[in-house]
Predict the 3D structure of the following.
Amino acid sequence: MKPVATASERRNHLPFWVALFCFLVIVYASLQPFTGWVAPAKNLLQSTATLTTRWSYADALFNVVAYLPFGVALSACWPVAWRFWPRWVATIFFAAAVSLSLEMLQLWLPTRVASAVDILANVLGAAAGALLGTYLVQSTRLVRHLRRAREALFIDGATGDLIIVLLLVWLAAQANPGIPLFGAVFHPGTSGSFEPAVLAVEIAQTSAALVGIGLFTDLAMRKRWLGGLALMTVIALAVLLKTTAAQWFLTPAAWEIWLRPGHTLGLALGAILLTALFWLPRAVKSVIAGVALLSGVLVSLLIPDLVTAKAPLALFSWHYGQLLNLNGLTRTVALLWPFVATLVLLARFGYRSK
């Protein structure tokens, strides 16, 4: 008996947003730095036949893991009436087409190495993810419980689904310990930590980011008491993820200077402001959240060197080949996330307030 597509199922956009984000991450990681495009010396057919087969266990594992969530999310995007095998096969073919296309584009980037092994690892990861995702989609009882939990905890609609995904994206970006907690840019060294201008910028940036992300989390929840619980949970997870990543991936010298005075004071100020702002109406909180999120990024322009600064690889004790991609990806997410989150808040609460 085929499952019946209900109205709530047709309006579930969460898998689509997750799959879209995974796709954008894969494109970014595959084509970074997006400059220096040069046509290959051979034609496309000859270039395809000479794809390198060099590989390492770390890179192969990374490629498998990178496509695994993409396969899970993509398998849930197909029509509800699709059974196990059509859903699984379609996901594998789509992921294989994406991987092959990106590897072909890498032939035009001298700084990247197109590899047939990467394609195989990507397809393997997508197949494993599709297997898991298809199994979950076919588990009607699990899907029903997840849908009820989502409807009971979070705000409804496509923007509600997107807000959930954005929260997960922000948490995932905390895996880069080179960027301070609730920061948007890398702050090099301890020099100037106590200079009034630098200290003021760091306090303003950190406190604004904490207020913005805290209110964004609160607005994602259906009820006020859920907002307070979610706020504490997200902050606790962010602190846990950031400190764990710092201990694992940073060198001992970098770990000692990881938390600067401005960030500590900014976190304290942001926590005080959140306590007062938490009780405001949703429409007001959405405006304040957007202003705070944008301020957390734009205040860095007061010290332009911070915007262009990147965490040097020497800070990290993790030396595998994908470190450069991860470092650049999380930095880009940290800079762009506030703008996307503000637009989503405007689309959700600005439209409904009219």
User: Anything to note?
Assistant: The radius of gyration is 22 Å. Residues 323-352 form the longest helix (30 residues).
